[in-house]
Amino acid sequence: MDVISAADLDDPLGEARAATLDMLSRHPRGLSLPQPFYNDDRLFRLDMQGIFEREWVFVGMSCEVPAKGNFMTLTIGDNPLVIVRGDGGILHAFHNVCRHRGSRLCATERGKVAKLVCPYHQWTYELDGRLLFAGSDMGQDFDLKAHGLKSVALTEAGGFLFVCLAEQPPSCDELKASFAHYLAPYDMENLKVAVSSTIEESANWKLVIENNRECYHCNGAHPELLNSLQEFDDTDDPRATPAYRELVARKQADWEAMNVPWQLTRLGKRNRLTRTPLLDGTVSMTMDGKPACQKLMGRLTSADMGSLRILHLPNSWNHFMGDHAVVFRVLPLGPQRTVVTTKWLVHKDAVEGVDYHPEQMRRVWDATNEQDRRLAEENQRGINSLAYEPGPYSMTYEFGVIDFIDWYRETLAASLGASPSLRLAQG
Ligand code: FES
Ligand SMILES: [Fe+2]
């Protein structure tokens, strides 16, 4: 940049924006990203502004806030949010920020309240965000109506909840329709969280997603997962064998007869939904491949449902089997810090200790998450080195990573004002 303008003074990231756009437009497709994308504080802030404050971000499941007054909280970057169910079953999302002097309102991860009461000076809000009470000394002219909670766009799609911090969120019609279609057999309002885990990883959020988008590493890293998981999930996969194709055809015929969706759907590169078989003879992601829960979900009548795999960029992947589901949420904490939350879902009437044992249900993905954490952290350590330079993704094993990086580059470049023709250099 030749001249520093007043606009640049207003925008401390101005030079970083220009440099980032330049790097994005020159970066050859098919290579991992340049180092600053994985460890630089300014790039991290651009990721937060350009991706996590503009796109639909997965927050949790509607069954986690089942009744009026139930709330859940999360933080996207610097933004604490609260999702609460109000009158008539309506879900609301708000900035979890008091309109008095800005204190965070709800400090716990979840709970049940009659009203939202600020812990600092007890300003009190209705569940729909209206300010009801602000003490008696705010003066006669104080306008309660002008101090309601700031709302955030929220959408429910087949039992998944997404928020978007942008003032004008991108359309979510297709997202809602697709998720509703695939998840209809699961009766999502009648699920519950059997158990959950939260792990913090010392790695950039993109390394966590990249690691998830390939199974190149599975053979060497995931013995527990490979008791049930197929290493590929598509008959177009260059590695797909005749035996795999035969298994897929057989299972698809079974699912078709049960009127359960299995086809592959893509919504751009952001979402991918498909049902694929587990290893022949296994029905669930457990150590022995047998169901972890005796009560099946929704209207399903067979445990042998393979896995409905659902990807949502930037921050979620999911497996829905017949007996239980595992949902994953990724939230960036810093350039080299990411939190991964995993929830295991079962039918809400399943009885712990009778129908399922949480310790048994969680074993495979606890082991897998821990293995993936180490892989992502080692990846980060190497990337921080003077020696790191972008390396080639494998077209055979890592096409999912290439798709993710394409989506990331296009989305971030668009947020930085790139014209579509500038958005991707073809390598
Ligand atoms: S900051 Fe919330 S009541 Fe004062
Ligand atoms: Fe993995």
List keywords for this structure.
427 residues; alpha+beta; Rieske Iron-sulfur Protein; seven-stranded antiparallel sheet; four-stranded antiparallel sheet; 17 strands; binds FE2/S2 (inorganic) cluster; binds fe (ii) ion
Give structural notes.
The protein is an alpha+beta fold and 427 residues long. It is built from eleven helices and 17 strands. It has helices at 6-10, 14-26, 36-39, 41-52, 173-183, 205-212, 218-221, 242-257, 358-361, 363-383, 399-415; strands at residues 57-61, 70-76, 79-85, 91-95, 110-112, 116-117, 124-125, 131-133, 153-157, 160-164, 191-201, 265-267, 271-276, 307-312, 316-320, 325-334, 337-347. A hairpin with a 6-residue loop joins strand 6 and strand 7. The protein is globular. The structure holds FE2/S2 (inorganic) cluster and fe (ii) ion (FE2). Fe (ii) ion (FE2) binds at residues 211, 217, 221-222, 372.
Question: First CA to last CA: what distance?
Answer: 26 Å
Show unreliable segments: none
Broad CATH class of the largest domain: Alpha Beta
Spatial strand sequence of the major β-sheet:
11-17-16-15-14-13-12
CATH architectural arrangement of the largest domain: Alpha-Beta Complex
- Helical percent range? 25-40%
Structural class category: alpha+beta
Number of strands: 17
Q: Number of folding domains?
A: 2
